[in-house]
Amino acid sequence: MRLGESQVNAAQAPDLAGALRSGPFHSALRAAIVARQLPLHRVRHHLARRGVTIGLTSLSYWQQGARRPQRPESMRAVRALEEILELPEESLIRLLGPAPDAAAPRRPGARSYGSLTEASGTVERLLAELGSPPDGGPHTVGHHERVRIGARRQLLGRDSQQIVRAHRDGVDRYMAVHHGDPGCSPSDVAVYAMENCRTGRVRWDDGTGVLVAELLFDARLRAGETHMFQYGFEDGTARSSTEYVRGFGSAGGQYALQVRFADDALPVRCHRFAQRSAAGPRDGRHELALSGSHRSVHMVEPQVRAGLVGIGWDWE
User: Fold this and answer.
1) Tens of pLDDT along 76-85?
2) What residues form DSSP beta bridges with 177?
């Protein structure tokens, strides 16, 4: 029995037919959702009625191509989606084919804080191990970040110059989080305290590529006092990188991001984007021109909002 909740939009039907015929999976799934005019929360509701529990983040990643259904429960969800979206049997399943080569580069859905939404349990656990205060520590009022991409298209490292303000007496540290690209070995990532701080305890999780480092200040700040410090992460352990994302839990100060590429590994195009959440659509996209002898791009957010911002690039 097929649902009659919405009819196929005639103008979208050819795109859907083509996507189902030639794929890839995420394009076909996205086309089917658009054609049926079903928001993701309704798709999730219909799955739940069939006894299949899938998070909104996973559904969003599936239709973006950032994640691939692989587990038995996920494959059961895909078969249910064929019914919910009024598609022929096996039309989505067959597009998945065999699991992709683990060594093959793939575009992550979001780097750093963007993908930390999915790994939030890991981050919370590591922060708890380091005794992170419930209020999250000092508030950021300014953050300039520089990301370096190497000749193998990998994330070599990133440096941050940050200004924070204490919102209570006694603040003496900052918890820095790094989330590598697919294939990252966090145990091999180095943390550098470069100015006005020193490295304290470091914890990581190999399964998610998450690393949390404690950066200690030389003095305890009083409420309202500011502190400027600089630190960095040296990575180079992951596969090809295609974007860098920074997440903000609340509105804050200025954020500037620069991505610099190796001379012999330049992307064909770059763009800035924003998301209200990891499960939400990307908006605010606009192209960025390579500058600085055609090796870098940058973006500036004068007043960040809660959510995600970042820079993406295409290699071909």
Assistant:
1) 888 889 999 9
2) 212
Three-class secondary structure of residue 186 per DSSP? helix
Cα separation, 6 vs 12, in Å, equals 13
Classify domain 113-314 by CATH architecture. Sandwich (2.60)
Q: Would you call 199 exposed, middle or buried from its count of C-beta atoms within 10 A (0-12, 13-18, 19+)? A: middle
Give the distance, in angstroms, between the CA of residue 253 and the centroid of all CA atoms in the same chain.
21
**Span 130-141, pLDDT tens digits:** 988 766 678 899
Distance of alpha carbon 48 from the chain centroid: 26
Query: What CA–CA distance (Å, rounded) separates 224 from 99?
Result: 53
Q: Where are the domains of the chain?
A: 13-96, 113-314
Radius of gyration of the chain (CA): 21
Q: How far apart are the first and last CA of the chain?
A: 43
* 138/85 Cα distance (integer angstroms): 47
The pLDDT confidence band at residue 102, using thresholds 50, 70 and 90, is very low
Residue 111, phi-psi category: left (phi > 0), alpha (psi -120 to 50), beta (remainder) = beta
Residues in Cβ contact with 41 at an 8 Å cutoff, skipping those fewer than 6 apart: 56
Tokens in use for 176? Answer: 């820095």
Joined together, the tokens standing for residue 263 give: 């001379």
Contact 290, 296 (CB under 8 A): yes
- Which CATH fold would you assign to the domain 13-96? 434 Repressor (Amino-terminal Domain) (1.10.260)
Is the overall model pTM greater than 0.70, yes or no? Answer: no
